[in-house]
C-alpha cells in the first residue's frame, strides 16, 4: 500500500478505537480525553504504533480548529434560560478565577523550581482553564446530575475561560520575547481581543440566523456545510482583525441557540457530531505529539504543580471569585474540586514551542503531566465528591423524545424539555396544582424510560422529563418551578 493508503487506514482505525473507547468512558466514568490521549500515545513513536510525529505547528492548527468547533457546538446546544442564573459566577470564575490561578501557579513555579516570574506565570496561564467535556462525560457516564445551578455554572465557566487563558498565554509570551512591551500595551491587547471578539460573536449570530432563514438553498444537505464554513469564517475573520476568535464562536453559538431558524434540530445534531470528531482528532494528535519518556522526566515538577493547582490555586481562585455571591459552601467546594484540565492547556503549551521560548519543551511536558494528573485525580473522584457533599441528583435514562426531530425547523411554538429535580416545588404536586404560566402546556412526560400522556391528575415525580409547549418568556418561571 502507498503512504496515503496507510495513513488513511491508520486514521480510520484510531478514530474507530476512540469511538468504542468513548463507550468505556461513559460506562465507567473515565474522562474520554484521557482514553483518547492514551490511544494517541500508544500509536506514537514510543508506543506500539511507532508513528513518529513531532510537528507542534500542525498540532496547534488541529487543536485551534477543533477547539473553535467544540466551543461553537457547546454554545449552540445551550439554553439561555438555564445559563442566565449562572452568568455572574461564571464570568467571575472565567476572568478573576483564571487570573488568580495563573498568578498563584506562577509564583509557586518561580519560588520552588527557579522559573523566572514571567515563565512561571506563562506556565500558570497555560494550565488555568478547565475542560467542560471532561466533567460532563463523567457525570453522564455515572447517571449523575448536579443540584441547582451547579451544572450551568461549570458549563458556562468551562466554555468561557478558554479565551482568558489564551489571552494570558499570548500576553506572557510577548512579555518574555519582547522585553520592551509595557503594561499599557498588554491592557490594550486584552481590551481589543475581548471587545472585538464579543462584537463579532454577536454579529455572527444575527447574520447567520438571517442567512439560514433566507438563503433558501436548493439542497438541504448544504445547510450543515454552510454553517460549518460560517464557523470558520467567524473565527478566522475575528482573529484576523485582532479579536478573540474563540470568544466569538462561543458567543455566536449561545446567541444563535436562542433563535428559531431552518433545520435547527438537524444542524445542532450535525455540530454535536463534528464536536466529537474534533475532540477525537485533537486528542489523538496531541497524544501522538507527546514523547512519554520526556514527560516522565518532568514527573516531579508536574506532580507538585498539579497538586498545588488542585489543592491550593484552584480553590483559592474559586473562593476569592465567588466570596460575595452567597453561594453555599458545599457548592463552592465542589466547584473548586471540579477543575479538570483538558485540551486547551495542551494546545496552549504548543504556543511557547512555536515562539522559540527557551523552556518551551519543558513547559509542554509539565503541562501534559499536569493535565493527565488532574484528569485521573479529579475525574475519577468527581462522582464520589458530589455524593459526599450531597449535591447530586440521579438522572433518568436518556431517551429520545418523539418530538425531538420537530423542534426548531418550521415550528412557531417553542417546545422545551425540563427535568424535574428532587426538592423542587413541582415534586409531589398534580399538574392542575402547578399554576403553569399562561399559554403553557405539558404535552408529554418522560418517566423511567417510558412516556406518559399527561392529564390534570398526574402527580409530578423527581426525575420526570417534561416536554413543555410554551413561549420563551415563560421559561424562567418553568425552570424555577421544576429545579432547585
Total number of helices: 20
- Main sheet overview: 4 strands, antiparallel
What is the CA–CA distance across the termini? Answer: 60 Å
**Poorly predicted ranges:** 403-412
Q: β content, as a range?
A: 5-15%
Shape: globular
CATH architecture of the largest domain: Up-down Bundle
- Whole-number total of structural domains: 2
- Global Rg: 23 Å
Strand order of the largest sheet: 3-6-4-5
CATH level-3 fold name of the largest domain: Na+/H+ antiporter like fold
Structural class: mainly alpha
Average of per-residue pLDDT values: 83
CATH C-level name of the largest domain: Mainly Alpha
**Helix proportion range:** 55-70%
Secondary structure: number of strands: 6
Question: What does the model show?
Answer:
This protein has 484 residues and is mainly alpha-helical. It folds into two domains: 54-393, Up-down Bundle (Na+/H+ antiporter like fold); 414-482, Regulator of K+ conductance, C-terminal domain (Alpha-Beta Plaits, 2-Layer Sandwich), CATH 3.30.70.1450. 65% of the residues lie in helices and 6% in strands. The protein has helices at residues 3-28, 32-43, 56-76, 80-83, 87-113, 117-126, 132-141, 150-177, 183-214, 222-240, 245-257, 264-289, 292-297, 299-322, 329-337, 343-348, 350-355, 360-379, 382-388, 475-482; strands spanning 144-146, 392-394, 414-419, 441-447, 450-452, 465-470. The longest helix has 32 residues, at 183-214. The radius of gyration is 23 Å and the shape is globular. The model is unreliable at 403-412 (pLDDT under 50).
Amino acid at each position: 500500500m502507498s503512504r496515503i493508503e496507510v495513513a488513511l487506514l491508520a486514521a480510520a482505525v484510531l478514530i474507530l478505537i476512540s469511538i468504542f473507547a468513548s463507550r468505556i468512558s461513559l460506562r465507567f466514568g473515565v474522562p474520554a480525553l484521557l482514553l483518547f490521549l492514551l490511544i494517541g500515545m500508544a500509536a506514537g513513536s514510543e508506543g506500539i504504533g511507532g508513528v513518529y510525529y513531532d510537528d507542534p505547528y500542525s498540532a496547534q492548527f488541529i487543536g485551534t480548529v477543533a477547539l473553535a468547533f467544540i466551543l461553537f457546538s457547546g454554545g449552540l446546544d445551550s439554553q439561555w434560560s438555564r445559563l442566565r442564573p449562572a452568568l455572574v459566577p461564571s464570568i467571575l470564575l472565567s476572568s478573576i478565577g483564571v487570573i488568580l490561578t495563573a498568578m498563584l501557579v506562577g509564583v509557586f513555579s518561580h519560588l520552588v523550581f527557579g522559573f523566572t516570574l514571567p515563565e512561571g506565570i506563562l506556565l500558570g496561564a497555560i494550565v488555568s482553564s478547565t475542560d467542560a467535556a471532561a466533567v460532563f462525560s463523567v457525570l453522564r457516564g455515572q447517571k449523575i446530575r448536579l443540584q441547582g445551578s451547579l451544572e450551568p455554572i461549570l458549563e458556562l465557566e468551562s466554555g468561557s475561560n478558554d479565551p482568558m487563558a489564551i489571552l494570558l498565554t499570548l500576553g506572557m509570551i510577548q512579555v518574555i520575547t519582547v522585553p520592551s512591551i509595557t503594561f499599557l500595551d498588554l491592557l490594550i491587547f486584552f481590551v481589543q481581543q475581548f471587545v472585538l471578539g464579543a462584537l463579532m460573536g454577536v454579529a455572527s449570530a444575527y447574520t447567520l440566523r438571517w442567512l439560514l432563514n433566507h438563503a433558501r438553498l436548493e439542497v438541504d444537505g448544504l445547510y450543515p456545510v454552510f454553517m460549518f464554513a460560517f464557523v470558520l469564517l467567524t473565527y478566522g475573520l475575528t482573529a484576523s482583525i485582532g479579536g478573540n476568535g474563540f470568544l466569538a464562536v462561543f458567543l455566536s453559538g449561545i446567541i444563535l441557540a436562542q433563535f428559531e431558524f431552518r433545520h435547527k434540530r438537524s444542524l445542532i445534531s450535525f455540530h454535536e457530531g463534528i464536536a466529537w470528531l474534533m475532540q477525537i482528532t485533537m486528542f489523538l494528535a496531541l497524544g501522538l505529539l507527546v514523547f512519554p519518556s520526556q514527560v516522565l522526566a518532568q514527573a516531579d515538577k508536574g506532580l507538585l504543580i498539579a497538586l498545588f493547582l488542585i489543592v491550593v490555586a484552584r480553590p483559592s481562585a474559586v473562593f476569592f471569585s465567588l466570596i460575595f455571591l452567597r453561594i453555599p459552601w458545599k457548592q463552592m467546594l465542589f466547584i473548586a474540586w471540579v477543575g479538570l484540565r483538558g485540551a486547551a492547556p495542551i494546545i496552549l503549551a504548543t504556543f511557547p514551542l512555536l515562539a522559540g521560548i527557551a523552556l518551551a519543551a519543558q513547559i509542554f511536558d509539565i503541562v501534559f503531566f499536569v493535565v493527565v494528573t488532574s484528569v485521573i485525580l479529579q475525574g475519577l473522584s468527581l462522582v464520589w465528591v458530589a455524593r459526599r457533599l450531597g449535591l447530586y441528583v440521579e438522572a433518568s435514562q436518556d431517551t429520545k423524545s418523539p418530538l425531538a426531530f420537530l423542534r426548531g425547523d418550521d415550528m412557531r411554538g417553542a417546545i422545551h424539555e425540563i427535568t424535574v429535580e428532587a426538592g423542587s416545588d413541582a415534586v409531589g404536586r398534580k399538574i392542575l396544582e402547578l399554576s403553569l404560566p399562561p399559554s403553557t402546556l405539558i404535552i408529554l412526560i418522560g418517566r423511567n424510560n417510558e412516556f406518559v400522556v399527561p392529564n390534570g391528575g398526574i402527580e409530578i415525580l423527581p426525575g420526570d422529563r417534561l416536554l413543555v409547549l410554551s413561549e420563551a418568556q415563560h421559561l424562567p418561571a418553568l425552570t424555577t418551578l421544576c429545579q432547585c
